[in-house]
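Read as amino acids, tokens; as here:

___
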Amino acid sequence: MNSLTRKAQNETLTYSTNPAVTPAMTKQEGAQKTKGWIVKTINWDEASLTNMVKNEPYCQSVFIDGEKLKSSVSEMHFLAVDFDKGETTFENYKKEKLPTFGFTAFMHTTVNHQKELREIVDSEEVVYPPRDKFRVIVPLSEPITNSQAEAIKSSGIIQETFSMNKDDIDMSFIDSNRYFKQNPDAIVFFYENEERLTSDYLLENTKKTEKTKRTKQTKKTTFTNSDVLLKHDHTEIKVGDVKQKERIFCPFCEHAKRTHPNDANAFIDINPAGTKYIFCSSEQKTYWQQAGSVDLDKCKLFWNASLGCPSMIGYESASIEDNSMYYVFKNDADFKNYCCQNNINPSIKDYLPRREIIFNPGLPSGLTDKFYNLFIETKYMRNDYSALPKVELVELVDLMTARTPIIAELMLNIFGESKYLERFLNWITFLLKERKKADSAWLITSEEEGIGKDLMFNRILKPLFGEKQSQLVNGKRIAKNFNNQDMNCFLRGYNEVFSSDDKNGNISRKEWLKDAITSRKQTIELKGKDTFEADNFMNFILFSNNESPVALDKKDRRFNVIRNIKAKKVSALSFFRGQKFLESDIANELDKFAEIIFTLNYNIDLVNVVLDSEAKKNIQACSCNPYEEFVKAIKTGNADYFIFDEIFKPDAGETLFDKYARSKDAIEVEKMVSVHKAIPAKYMNRVVKFHFGQETYIKTIEKLKMKGITNKPLRLSQDEVIKAYM
């Protein structure tokens, strides 16, 4: 008889069961029954075991006072090895693995045997296909303790003894207070043998494993939160419990070879990267904590995976225009200089937590285990408004007038009518509560200057959206590409996007805005760094004193346009009592205004449906595309549109007897448009030059073709065919 098995002195099995755990209960409901577990002993035979697994919940352990807790475990009498992973089947295990045991065992299928299981993972349903799920009950020659069970679990001896295929055993089975649910439909198999698995065999292998671990530990070059260190006073401390600099005995060097082996020769500390490190004075060497064990609350450095370089969190620039919330080290010399001034070993760069840069108002802020989110919640976003009554959209302006009269009067001065202010604040509430991007923007124009547009953005909206993630800038600063300031922007205001002396710039800015309003992604370009793609959460409010600052198409679905022709200067409003009081008067109402906004029952259907205001219609009328109008006049036979008498003036011979005589060319081309809805090719150059100025003929024709004009033969009669634009 070898050390693996021992002949059973009594052929029985001791276990704990609970009559209160019924087959109708779920496994989770049964697990909640921690009290009332009683000890039972049955014969080790097929009939008794079958009755147990089909009718009783069972535990491998005996509990003090019948309470199913690890701290209450008295002793553990058998193993219920759980197979619910991998490709191992009940039949293959019975036929191929059991005969190799040399000790007795009992197999039974579990309640989830060959069932399709569904689980919600990251908000998505994951379906696990049916597979064999069963347990192998193995009685031990001697009971083991709770701590011995834990040692066996981590030794690897379980896989070595029982596993048939890779990762087929659920190792949580060995938890000493684990219970197993009864299965009335269990398929069973009794492997009869006079020998039992010895506890000594399992524990001897555990000792070998621990010895191997200690041998390997001296060769490690990193450490984890679970490692235990010896402090200078010979007490122990877990790495995870280190909160400050501690003097320790280095766990990596050989103390016996030192002159003073009983004196602490190292220290452990936390660096600005949130990573613990050990410096050994005997070796003059630094050892680092394993990647992934970083203390995120204390981390000030990380590897910027978006740019491929180290970065610093919490950077405060001297420039008020620098909106960065982190600092990108320009090169190795810049990083080494920072490390030198902050007592950091520059080699820490290789151990920094690797994180992608994002800006997402809907995700946790700061450094997490997956990303570094630049978004920062304002105090108004963090407040709990759940106990306050809800505000309906129809009562919004009246409530503002009662509770925040200064803010109400200021905003009504800008928007003119309550219905427009309601729609604007409905849009604002959607952004703040849903933390999403809208597909619409606001264009607010006024004839009068100084009506409070800047005050509204900077003193009312900016505190709600965040000082660093909302900016009001000059419209001329609209760039062709997204930059660092755009990346962490939630609300962007542009002052005067129109420039009377920059026609091409106006068109360029309009096209950039159209794309930025609806695009969900943006490509960030930083000087000296590779470009990278980021989510676009920018929402836009445009301000202008020009009546038509942006050319809008007739079918525009992006812009809400407001123009209050009765707007007054702020100094003429009833609440104004001097410039020095203005900002503080608004600030005094801000908390109440935030309460109204965050309790508003906004209408999500109105967020991306733009207003059909008179101000917008006026801009659209001024924004008609001349190429579209030109083509439309041809296709509808509207000859008056072209003013042919101005293009084709009569010569001296034609006016000799009639000063009101018309050019034959003008008469001919007018007839062609009216009758045939076409302009002969021989006249097209002069017509185009008159209507489109200095633009080249070829370029103009290309644009007209894009609007639907075609150049093809036109049959005027059976014998006459000409080339014409139709």
